[in-house]
Amino acid sequence: MNRQTADHATLADKFNEDEPRVNWHDQTLWWVRAKRDRIAWTIPEWEQLRDTASSIKLNALGNLHDYLLQFEQQAQQNGAIVHWAADAAEHNRIVTEILQKHGVKRMVKSKSMLTEECHLNPHLEANGIEVIDTDLGERIVQLAKEPPSHIVLPCIHKKKEEIGELFHEHLGTPAGNADPQFLTAAARLHLRKEFLLADAAITGVNFAVAETGEMVVCTNEGNADMGAHLANVHIACMGIEKIIPQRKHLGVFLRLLARSATGQPITTYSSHFRKPREGQELHIVLVDNGRSRQLGREDFRNSLKCIRCGACMNTCPVYRRSGGHSYHNAVAGPIGAILAPNLDMKDYADLPFASTLCGSCSNVCPVKIDIHQQLYKWRQVLVKEGYTSTAKTAGMKVMTGVLSAPGVYKAAGKMGRWVMRAFPGMVNNRMNPWYKQREMPVPPAQSFSEWYKKNKKST
Amino acid sequence: MKVGLFIPCYIDQFYPQVGIATLQLLQKLGCEVEFPQGQTCCGQPMANSGYEHLTHQCNSLFIKNFADYDYIVGPSGSCVLHIKDHLHDPAAEPQAEKIRQRIYELTEFLTDVLKVTSLPARFPCKVGLHQSCHGQRGLGLAQMSELVAAPFSKPEQLLRMVEGVELVPLDRADECCGFGGTFCVAEEAVSVKMGKDRVADHVKHGAEVITGTDVSCLMHMEGILRRQHAGVKVMHIAEILNQYTDEQANS
């Protein structure tokens, strides 16, 4: 995805130009949140499950070095070829080299947020390799030449009519047909052909088990399996934080993942990949890309517990009303806002401020990441590191000066209220973003402290 | 029991009636209340904007004003949460710690410290309760809908003691109103949209008055309601809990 210069507020402002669409987007995602609530309530030990998952991840992150080596050893014993990539560029180079070695010109890819983060698709295309995203939602945004707007529901920002038009243009479906079942069947036919033609398949990884060297990939469409089983080369790309210590821990994570993500008891497919089949090459690319750095930031370490369920996005009142693209990062929403500044503080300095700190995200999170507290902490870091406007800093200093001196504060308050009453136009104008769609509070003649001084004896 | 009354700056300046209601309510319930005149702001506007490092003077001032009280009580969940989470002073850390442990938002002070079981108040009206996020999720004033856990609500518990109050149900019991401090101007479009949606939920269910534990959220929703000429009023919960009964009014 291309870096954008516009910040979250500007992009959100644009998204809000079409209010009925904002309503639709909000209600669609709220429906997913409500579905998550209903299914969570069917598990009496839900909160205990979250605690357990959080503890397992804490252990995995605390011993990441050892678990990664154990995983590598087990995976190699299973016959996989393991690669290590320090950053996105190295990841892309490794994948390209594997594909070039096999003369691959056309390949399929199931959903992988990591490859989005690394901008793999444009890199491969620049090297003459055609990539077909096989997750239906991802294929839709790929046809639309857009990045995904949600990590679980990549095309949630698109209406079925828009998808009908896209399919008409690219897949030759009849114009004006927006029947979801019909369009899905058309996509199925189209993708079936791609699966058969592909020389290689890339999949993401949901969980990598250190104990066994196996990987678990969760999909609802079976597209990861279809790709990996048909192609002669399977490349699994994963961030190093996907490690879990033991296979039995899947019993915790698989119960939480789909329930948190979409309100389903489990994904339709939870596929275990352990060994390459006869004649197939299985590559596993372990990618750092800033994760070690984040691991070293004590305040933000827990963000690496994320299992990419998207529950924080569905519940986020800001995400629902600003859309995934307003976060201009592969991972949107609250979790994206605490992960992105680690990748680039300058480009993503706006994201931790795109929140009211309401805290809903932290409390739906199945691995209990303190997301809203990390948003607060990122704000402190970003200001200290100088990624904030000088006007804002100057304003904050003036404000601090006034609020640090009771006499100045009282005088300023009294004068401010008088100005508001005498010259309402001074504040009720277009320069004031509050006033654009809201009335200012009516300034009283007397502050509470003035009232108290006069009345305290009589109360 | 000596209670220090903490009236956040914007309540002091724009909503004196909320300070008055809080003071009268606490006195009615038998507390000895004082309002330290030297207080200004808790420092939250700076801290939430990423300038926590500028709040030292506000912190020292807060400690100077409130160190001597048995309890500190304020009609704002958000400001109280800020003090609880962030009040520090290397020069007066024991006092800062005492304040962090002894500061209460008004409704939790009533239910948990004073253990109020009845109130001499009457307010015949359809009321929508806005559960402000910092109070609810931060201070635990009410159970949050995200958790699989038994529901409770301290503000609701108190409103149910007021004769005549009819609480209206909401489609989204605890969604954020979009105020969010400087967010309300920095992210004006989303902030207003969130506020409009929150207000619409109350209006749809027939609320005549929207109440809550935070004036900041109420100020934001009031601004939207007034622009819409909606006719729905906004009142802080202290104002409702402090409403006199007919008997008191006549005496």
UniProtKB/TrEMBL annotation, chain A:
<keyword id="KW-0249">Electron transport</keyword>
<dbReference type="InterPro" id="IPR037171">
    <property type="entry name" value="NagB/RpiA_transferase-like"/>
</dbReference>
<dbReference type="Pfam" id="PF02589">
    <property type="entry name" value="LUD_dom"/>
</dbReference>
<feature type="domain" description="4Fe-4S ferredoxin-type">
    <location>
        <begin position="296"/>
        <end position="326"/>
    </location>
</feature>
<dbReference type="GO" id="GO:0006089">
    <property type="term" value="P:lactate metabolic process"/>
</dbReference>
<dbReference type="Pfam" id="PF13183">
    <property type="entry name" value="Fer4_8"/>
</dbReference>
<keyword id="KW-0677">Repeat</keyword>
<keyword id="KW-0004">4Fe-4S</keyword>
<dbReference type="GO" id="GO:0046872">
    <property type="term" value="F:metal ion binding"/>
</dbReference>
<dbReference type="InterPro" id="IPR024569">
    <property type="entry name" value="LutB_C"/>
</dbReference>
<dbReference type="InterPro" id="IPR017896">
    <property type="entry name" value="4Fe4S_Fe-S-bd"/>
</dbReference>
<dbReference type="InterPro" id="IPR004452">
    <property type="entry name" value="LutB/LldF"/>
</dbReference>
<keyword id="KW-0813">Transport</keyword>
<keyword id="KW-0408">Iron</keyword>
<keyword id="KW-0411">Iron-sulfur</keyword>
<keyword id="KW-0479">Metal-binding</keyword>
<dbReference type="InterPro" id="IPR017900">
    <property type="entry name" value="4Fe4S_Fe_S_CS"/>
</dbReference>
<dbReference type="GO" id="GO:0051539">
    <property type="term" value="F:4 iron, 4 sulfur cluster binding"/>
</dbReference>
<dbReference type="Pfam" id="PF11870">
    <property type="entry name" value="LutB_C"/>
</dbReference>
<dbReference type="InterPro" id="IPR024185">
    <property type="entry name" value="FTHF_cligase-like_sf"/>
</dbReference>
<dbReference type="InterPro" id="IPR009051">
    <property type="entry name" value="Helical_ferredxn"/>
</dbReference>
<dbReference type="InterPro" id="IPR003741">
    <property type="entry name" value="LUD_dom"/>
</dbReference>
Automatic annotation (TrEMBL), chain B:
<dbReference type="GO" id="GO:0005829">
    <property type="term" value="C:cytosol"/>
</dbReference>
<dbReference type="InterPro" id="IPR004017">
    <property type="entry name" value="Cys_rich_dom"/>
</dbReference>
<dbReference type="Pfam" id="PF02754">
    <property type="entry name" value="CCG"/>
</dbReference>
<protein>
    <submittedName>
        <fullName>L-lactate dehydrogenase complex protein LldE</fullName>
    </submittedName>
</protein>
<feature type="domain" description="Cysteine-rich">
    <location>
        <begin position="127"/>
        <end position="221"/>
    </location>
</feature>
<feature type="domain" description="Cysteine-rich">
    <location>
        <begin position="3"/>
        <end position="84"/>
    </location>
</feature>
<dbReference type="GO" id="GO:0016491">
    <property type="term" value="F:oxidoreductase activity"/>
</dbReference>
